Amino acid sequence: MDHKSSITIHDIARELNISASTVSRALNDNPRISKGTKEKIKAKALEMGYQPNTIASNLRNQKTNTIGIVVPLINRHFFSTFISGVEDVAFAAGYNVIISQSNDLLEKEKQIVHSLFSNRVDGLIASLSMQTNEFDHFQLFSKKDIPIVFFDRVVPELEAHKIVVDDFMVGFKATEHLIQQGYKRIAHLAGPTVLHTYRDRMSGYRAALEKNNVPIDEDLVIYSRLTRIDGQDAIKRLMALPQPPDAVFCGNDTSALAMMVYLKKIGIKIPQDFGLIGFSDEPFSEVVTPSISTLKQPSFEMGVKAAELLIQEIESKNRLAEHLTITMPTELVQRESSSRLK
Amino acid sequence: MDHKSSITIHDIARELNISASTVSRALNDNPRISKGTKEKIKAKALEMGYQPNTIASNLRNQKTNTIGIVVPLINRHFFSTFISGVEDVAFAAGYNVIISQSNDLLEKEKQIVHSLFSNRVDGLIASLSMQTNEFDHFQLFSKKDIPIVFFDRVVPELEAHKIVVDDFMVGFKATEHLIQQGYKRIAHLAGPTVLHTYRDRMSGYRAALEKNNVPIDEDLVIYSRLTRIDGQDAIKRLMALPQPPDAVFCGNDTSALAMMVYLKKIGIKIPQDFGLIGFSDEPFSEVVTPSISTLKQPSFEMGVKAAELLIQEIESKNRLAEHLTITMPTELVQRESSSRLK
DNA sequence: ACTTTTTGCGCAATCGATTGCATCTTTGTC
DNA sequence: GACAAAGATGCAATCGATTGCGCAAAAAGT
After folding, report:
1. What is the pTM of this model?
2. pLDDT tens digits, A281-305
3. Secondary structure (H, E, C), chain A
4. Is the CB atom of residue A59 positioned under 7 angstroms from any atom of strand D?
5. Domains of chain A, CATH where assigned
């Protein structure tokens, strides 16, 4: 009772005294098999508890019905929500999803991408690691014409489909909102500018200032990795300036929260004395006190879109000639931390 | 330029005028191949950009190096953190992770489990859906001796390994903590009692009350699904009682937060007039005001343990006769919402 | 010089499902 | 009744990597 070799179509065939081909065709509802035989076979399959071996089928069909996902870290609200969206669509379309996290390490990302390739995923959805500055590993896929969809962290160099938000507008809207609320000296905590995302947001920030005739002060722009510590360090530095800012547009909500905690501690009133706005609408942003204004990106929908696009590409015989870039809308969520005007 | 059939070991063999067997053995560092030949082959493989076809290998080896995960929803802090832990260990051990979400639907869970089986995952890690009250679909695995590790939502009926927290102690510690802080009428917002988890926590709650000679009042126990709405409804009901409680142990942090928001709104002071403690230490619990006391479960470590146990089972020739139940420690995180004593 | 052992490698089957082509039946038509 | 056209099913190759067994050549032993 240990040699539980699964039952195969051959076992069914033997029982019924027919050929395995017929069983295979019957199970796949091939019109060449008569109705009667089909029923007999299906009944037998059920009776014997037959479970198809997807591996064998995959090998023969050169298709795995599997999508690979690469993200820096699964355990982050944006990514897990995105993945949730992908999984929903993928499941409905009959695809499995293999997930790997790069931990923001280029080396691990490379390994993962190779592994996913060897596993012959039908398509790939990826957000680059923080370290990623070369892209050869993705060529594996493009060379074999396996579709890729990048999202979030993307680079223009990549010839592939992309799902992004309009980062320029993010920076612009956030900054202009602060201006409209009457803040005068608006700082910006930026992310690593190797990433386009952050460069664009910064451009938006500058553009909003310029448009509203607010002089740009380079002291008010700080570059970091947007962690909690970074936020704390940044706000300390900013408040230590001869002319400290009275508002900050933070590259994410995490750093905005860190700033808020510090400002509260040193007795600065938010939003009366100081305005804060973040990005991405983390779950905590709504429930902290004061609640944090932010720009919400449609994480789940981005995952849905990514999966839809990828699957469409996988299943269409003639691939899109152009590489699509889908820009998803962001939404300003005004909360207490930036609501100085009534 | 469209028939980009991958290069196989046969292609390498042809180029080198040797047999495919030799190539296979060389690539796998089989001692039967001479050093010189190995080097020649590996060099050629690299030159030709050979990428092994894992599918083919899997089929032949009857092993996929893949672990299946089933969770209700990826996009939930506990689950995504758990998965992150699994992925870490799995990757290091050379396993891929296929993730599916049941959306708390029994039907979807069944489909997923079948699909993962057909994909011949080497092992399964699962948390049951809220609806799950039958377990035949898991028999597929046990019958073929494929190891399963359940976590979080488990049921005693299942003959499989389990990773859990000591829910009784959770309830007990939370309740006793409130008692020690001087609260007198302690309510409990419980989850669906079909799940053992919640039954055990309730037992802990009752035990703590009994031990401290606090009479148990059934009006103070409310059953729900622990959503935000549930929390809000529950606290309204509780506060409308002739003798409302002065503290609540909530089945999770989400409902605790909902309660807090309501209590603040109606002007009740936390923790002076009312104590709150939740469960699971959501990211927001630390940063809301007042911060929410809670019991922290080691999500990531649970994932690590689950993966380690599963992989060990997969790779050991003789399986453990016994089914292990690993109980992970929880930690009381005392924060403002329950800190009445200085 | 002859046998035994070791070393290095190839043949062919295997994993389980799929499918082009061939074969055999049945039905239909004149 | 003869022959074509469907209709139903089987044969055998295929997907790509792995491996037990066998064979030949080289090395070691007597």
Report:
1. 0.93
2. 999 999 999 999 999 999 999 999 9
3. CCCCCCCCHHHHHHHHCCCHHHHHHHHCCCCCCCHHHHHHHHHHHHHHCCCCCHHHHHHHHCCCCEEEEEECCCCCHHHHHHHHHHHHHHHHCCCEEEEEECCCCHHHHHHHHHHHHHCCCCEEEECCCCCCCCCHHHHHHHHCCCCEEEECCCCCCCCCEEEEECHHHHHHHHHHHHHHCCCCCEEEEECCCCCHHHHHHHHHHHHHHHHCCCCCCHHHEEECCCCHHHHHHHHHHHHCCCCCCCEEEECCHHHHHHHHHHHHHCCCCCCCCCEEECCCCCHHHHHCCCCCEEEECCHHHHHHHHHHHHHHHHHCCCCCCCCCEEEECCEEECCHHHCCCC
4. yes
5. 9-52 (1.10.260.40), 64-165+299-328 (3.40.50.2300), 167-297+332-338 (3.40.50.2300)
